[in-house]
Amino acid sequence: MLESLNLLGQTSLAGEKATEDFGARVGSVLKAGDWIGLVGQLGAGKTTLVRGVLQSFGLQDVQSPTYTLINQYQTNPKVNHLDLYRLENAEDLESIGYWDLEEDAITVVEWIDKIEEAWNGDGLILKLEYASDSRIISGYGAGDWSKRLHELWQVKE
Ligand SMILES: Nc1ncnc2c1ncn2[C@@H]1O[C@H](COP(=O)(O)OP(=O)(O)OP(=O)(O)O)[C@@H](O)[C@H]1O
Ligand SMILES: [Mg+2]
Q: pLDDT tens digit string along 93-114?
């Protein structure tokens, strides 16, 4: 999945607040119809990042969709927050209504790499990795994502 996308940039996030702030900055460039996949081990910070995204829409109470599978927010545009960790295959996607999500919402999917069919190749992938007591975040995407996220990465002189 990541192999077919361009690496947009990478930066380190020192602490939970840095992950939230990064999410809020991503949130500020999102538009209706955007699709964001999150990749990273258990506890890597995916939900923390989405909490930041939703802060940029004025929401403070954001729970993990680990058990609910889909949480929907009536923001403008609407935001769908999903977690595929507990799903097994494309049929499970069908049964949670994955293909019926509104096209004019923003959709953010944790564990997008769990089911191959879940990713249509068009959108932004953010990967979180452990680095001692912090995290490294990498962005992958085609089209105008490079331009839209340009200011989020550390520029190496
Ligand atoms: N940049 C960071 N540095 C250190 N700790 C962080 C950072 N970002 C988030 N954390 C911590 O990582 C923990 C796990 O976060 P979170 O629940 O967001 O992970 P997750 O990737 O959604 O996990 P899951 O796969 O279970 O859904 C939290 O305790 C959070 O405080
Ligand atoms: Mg999570």
A: 999 999 999 999 999 999 999 9
Q: Verify whether ligand 1 is closer than 6 Å to residue 13 (CB atom).
A: yes
Which one of 47, 48, 55, 86 would you pick to mutate in the ligand 1 pocket, going by the greatest count of ligand atoms within 8 A of its CB? Answer: 48
* Domain ranges (residues) in the chain: 12-141
Alpha carbons within 13 angstroms on the beta-carbon side of residue 16 total 4
What are 32-45's pLDDT values in tens digits? 999 999 999 999 99
42 lines ligand 1 (CB under 6 A): yes
Residue with CA closest to ligand 1 atom 31: 16
Residue nearest to atom 7 of ligand 1 (CA): 16
Give Dmax over CA atoms of the chain in angstroms: 49
Which residues have CB under 8 Å from 153's CB, separation 6+?
Answer: 8, 9, 10, 11, 139
CATH fourth-level superfamily of 12-141: P-loop containing nucleotide triphosphate hydrolases (3.40.50.300)
